[in-house]
Amino acid sequence: MAWLRRDRKPSQRAAEDIDLDSLLALVAESRGYTCVFAVDGHSLTLRRDGRPDGQADGPADGAADGLAQERSSDGGHGEYGGSGGHGASWRAGEGAGEIVVRLTGLRRVAGRRTREDWPMLVSEHLAHAVAVAGDPIDVCDLNQVRPLLRTRVEAVDEVADLTRVVGRHLNGDLVELLTVGSRVVRPEEAGCWPVPPGQALELAASNVRREERLSVEAIQLSGTPVSRLTGQGPSTATHLRWLGDYVPVPADGVLAVLPDPYTLLVYPVTGIGAVRAIERLRVHAARTGGLSAQVYWWHEGRLRLIKADIVLHGGQTRLVVAPPPEFARVLARLAA
């Protein structure tokens, strides 16, 4: 038998890939599918094994509970469902058909997560692939989705799990998310692309600038003139990067509030009147109760929070402002 051992070739695949494949097969089988892996490991094909969905041997540690339907948070914040593919395609086969699921992005995401996270990652990946099988757009194909890439700004607290989205922080409480059409891109989808997430976000921003134009209106907030910029999509805050295309932007920047993802109110920082503008903008943002109730300072490509709290004391309402040091120095200079 020695000659058998000499001829046996060692596996060229990483142990992590082998373990992930085993988990994928287990989860698929627990939900009534058999799976066949591509030789290169970049995809697998799901086939029905004849058992009604749900009549399975049972998932390991509950990992596959989501294959029949996605988690209820999909379509909300954090885990996003909706139209668009997930690296899955439906093709005619024997019986009910086959679902081809791409795995490149999943492997990259799994490589950055602990193994304790793998069961949920695999379950969600396969569940979403089954849910969108047959959709015309494969989000894993950058060539298909490049013109559809957009951005959307959300409050950080409204995103259920920042590890399950692709985006970047505008500041400590706002995040700019990458979307395809109306839904947020998942890390395992972006992981299939030949460009890093940061470059994909820049592609999305370029699409926003080219395809979406804001309307500009001069309004008054209790006597303080501000500019209201409104867009058709939830990418309005992205336009801050080229705000000068719409309104004059002074050297000291502008004050801004984002009452909702479609609206941006700005006030130029050109004099001590900015102090009154902070109050007017803060009260307006608090009344709308939308994306953010805070006032921000857009300056040199950064969106910084001007912390302003509305305090009720002795039957009177006061605004307590704690600006960042750099903005405080600007105000001191303007007041001199």
SSE topology sketch:
Layout: H1 2-7, H2 15-30, E1 33-37, E2 43-48, E3 88-91, E4 98-102, H3 104-112, H4 118-132, H5 142-145, E5 149-155, E6 167-169, E7 174-180, E8 183-184, H6 187-190, H7 197-211, E9 215-221, E10 224-230, E11 254-260, E12 263-268, H8 273-288, E13 295-299, E14 302-313, E15 316-322, H9 325-335
Biased composition (Low complexity): 55-69
Region (Disordered): 46-91
Biased composition (Gly residues): 78-87
Task: Explain the overall architecture.
The chain has 336 residues and is α+β, with helices and mostly antiparallel strands. It folds into three domains: 15-132, no CATH class; 142-211, no CATH class; 215-335, no CATH class. The protein contains nine helices and 15 strands. The protein has helices at residues 2-7, 15-30, 104-112, 118-132, 142-145, 187-190, 197-211, 273-288, 325-335; strands spanning 33-37, 43-48, 88-91, 98-102, 149-155, 167-169, 174-180, 183-184, 215-221, 224-230, 254-260, 263-268, 295-299, 302-313, 316-322. The strands form three sheets. The protein has a seven-stranded antiparallel β-sheet, covered by helices on one side. Strands 1-2-4-3 form a four-stranded antiparallel β-sheet. Strands 5, 6, 7 and 8 form a four-stranded antiparallel β-sheet that branches. Strand 14 and strand 15 form a beta hairpin. Helix 2 (15-30) packs across helix 4 (118-132). The radius of gyration is 25 Å and the shape is elongated. Residues 1-8, 51-86 and 88-96 have low confidence and may be disordered.
